[in-house]
């Protein structure tokens, strides 16, 4: 009868180890049932679940394998596995697979301890852990850094919403972002990203900047904050704020557009979205003048925003056409997806305000970015600790797959 053995190998990594080890196994007709390998700081950890055919003496095969590993100065452990245990393990593959993405400026043991405790308490098992970001330098002059670790976990959880709430509590307590997604066909195959503009793609609330130029900054800022927190009806508050801009010289708009600062990570994010063939859109409750400016700068495919009415070179305090509020944002997202023949599960939506929640809820991946508390509490995913390019990690992209540097 054939024998199933789990072989664990550890030691200093070197080129050719896998080739030479499997060469020894091939002489005994060994069948590889499962294999996994990780190298951390040039130290190898290799696991192989193998089946030795009954036509060979298993002790002879294991003896040759052990001798070869000893010659290579590697440590090895052999663990027999019963056929019943093996079949139980195979049956476990039918359970759901989830991906937990941990993002922050740095990741500490306490972060993983809290997350792993939640995973275990919910009946899930961690199967794989990968670092998605590049190697971290300890030098103080390397500039802002970010860290991301991805955990693949398997099992059936009865209350995924409760897990999300526990991860949100970890984020709040420890200042790290924790995204929890079900693994599936669409996770690494999104095709459209729809962005809010103000405080998402750019660091500013443009209406506040215009208000400052018009000398009504404090009044408008107060209304904006209340609206973004969801305390005021967006359309009514928007009309009230725009009315305060009446008489502003339209010649100031190009100057303001030129000094708008992009949010951290935007240029890197758009670089790789273009390479990967994503469609991109801005759907904003701000103004289309500034959306068009961003379109030229970033290569956006679509821009939808409010049209600020200008007559005789002056802002009238009115907007032309339908105001883009939360409901309209959601319908525009659907229209763009339908036009591009993209399933809503393949859409990513990103925003920071209460008026972004409808579109965040429609998209397959809705992300609250450096958002107000009410938005973070409602959105399924959030990024609050690093730049907008953190979206790449939620899509499963690793730094070594870009030209940003080696792992």
Summarize the structure.
The chain has about 400 residues and is α/β, with parallel strands linked by helices.
CATH superfamily of the largest domain: HAD superfamily/HAD-like
Distance between the termini: 44 Å
Q: What count of structural domains?
A: 3
Give the uncertain stretches in residue-range form.
none
* CATH T-level fold name of the largest domain: Rossmann fold
Work out the radius of gyration: 27 Å
How many beta strands in the DSSP annotation?
15
Helix percent band? 25-40%
CATH level 1 name of the largest domain: Alpha Beta
Oligomer: single chain
Care to describe what's here?
- By secondary structure, the protein is of the alpha/beta class.
- The protein folds into three domains: 3-91, Alpha-Beta Plaits (2-Layer Sandwich), CATH 3.30.70.260; 95-182, 2-Layer Sandwich (Alpha-Beta Plaits), CATH 3.30.70; 192-401, Rossmann fold (3-Layer(aba) Sandwich).
- It has 15 helices and 15 strands.
- The protein has helices spanning 17-26, 58-71, 83-92, 109-121, 160-174, 206-214, 217-228, 234-243, 252-258, 266-275, 288-298, 326-339, 357-362, 373-378, 391-394; strands at 3-12, 31-40, 43-52, 75-81, 97-104, 125-131, 147-154, 177-182, 192-195, 279-287, 302-311, 314-320, 347-351, 365-369, 381-383.
- The strands form three sheets. A seven-stranded mixed sheet has the order 12-11-10-9-13-14-15. Strands 2-3-1-4 form a four-stranded antiparallel sheet.
- Helix 1 runs antiparallel to helix 2, helix 4 runs antiparallel to helix 5 and helix 7 (217-228) packs antiparallel against helix 8 (234-243).
- The longest helix has 15 residues, at 160-174.
- The mean pLDDT is 92.
